[in-house]
Design goal:
259 residues, alpha/beta, Rossmann fold, Alpha-Beta Plaits, seven-stranded mixed sheet, four-stranded antiparallel sheet, binds the ligand O=P(O)(O)OC[C@H]1O[C@H](O[C@H]2O[C@H](CO)[C@@H](O)[C@H](O)[C@H]2O)[C@H](O)[C@@H](O)[C@@H]1O, magnesium, Trehalose_PPase
Length: 259
């Protein structure tokens, strides 16, 4: 594993230490971490090596695997095709599937905000080619990967201004060529905390690539391992170059954890 170090120590050593923890939670972001980024979200798939390593970890003793994604749960299940043993958190921590069926129930006020939010974002996207809206149970993502930088900036500016004026309680998040709006302020950090407790984990590995994954890195402790995939500022202890490198780390952990 010849991967880059971010903030401390050797990743190989940290993985070896993590493999000895009594109960391990392996929490993984999907897009940009297990799956390379692509223009059309529905076409994203985990690298075969990443999927294989993830499945090997589900078979390891006292090890729980979870996916923590910004995607809506249905979308995450469609692209990740996870086995039932994998716990899921979608919509940046708003949706959770442990062993039971997932579900989010919004209050009347939240449903009202969601309807108005949709109108505002549709109006912001309408004048531009290649700006589109992804629907989630508690919010929307304004996508601009295929748009010109000028169109992306203008659509996002309009969306931001109208939402912050009319719906100041809405949570706004920037991701990779995406600006997201949610009626819930739940974060990936909340998801890591909740899944850690549910798994009774004595240590956590969390890997992610995007700005929103920083909420997950922020709640890790000394016994945990945070891995940032790709460039950008991070609070993670370690950094690797791309999803292929994440797959190598997971595969090594699965190998060590199998014994
Ligand atoms: O938390 P993640 O699993 O990384 O999900 C974050 C967002 O992923 C998706 O958008 C991103 O990936 C797309 C496919 O590669 C890409 O086209 C887009 O530009 C990226 O922002 C997803 O569509 C969003 O809902 C997620 O929040």
């Amino acid at each position: 594993m010849a991967d880059v170090q971010a903030n401390s120590g050797s990743l190989e050593g940290a993985i070896a230490a993590l493999a000895t923890t009594p109960r391990l939670l392996v929490a993984l972001d999907f897009d940009g971490t297990l799956a390379p980024l692509v223009d059309r979200p529905e076409e994203a798939r985990a690298l075969p090596a990443a999927r294989e390593a993830m499945l090997a970890l589900t078979r390891a003793p006292d090890t729980r695997v979870a996916l923590i994604s910004g995607r809506a749960m249905q979308s995450l299940m469609h692209v990740a095709e996870p086995p039932e043993a994998v716990w899921l958190s979608g919509s940046h921590g708003v949706e959770v599937r442990l062993d039971a069926a997932p579900g989010v129930s919004l209050s009347e006020a939240e449903q009202g905000d969601l309807s108005r939010l949709r109108e505002i974002l549709e109006a912001a996207a309408a004048p531009f080619d290649d700006i589109w809206i992804e629907v989630k149970p508690a919010g929307f993502a304004l996508h601009s990967r295929s748009a010109t930088p000028q169109d992306a900036e203008e659509a996002e500016r309009q969306a931001h201004e109208r939402v912050s004026t009319e719906l100041p309680a809405i949570t706004e998040r920037r991701g990779s060529n995406v600006l997201e709006f949610s009626v819930r302020s739940t974060t990936k950090g909340d998801a890591v905390r909740m899944l850690r407790e549910a798994a009774g984990a004595t240590a956590v590995l969390f890997a992610g690539d995007d700005v929103t994954d920083e909420d997950g890195f922020a709640v890790l402790g000394d016994a945990d391992v945070g891995i940032k995939c790709g460039p950008g500022a991070t609070a993670a202890k370690f950094r690797v170059e791309d999803p292929a490198a994440v797959a190598r780390v997971l595969s090594r952990l699965a190998e060590l954890r199998a014994h």
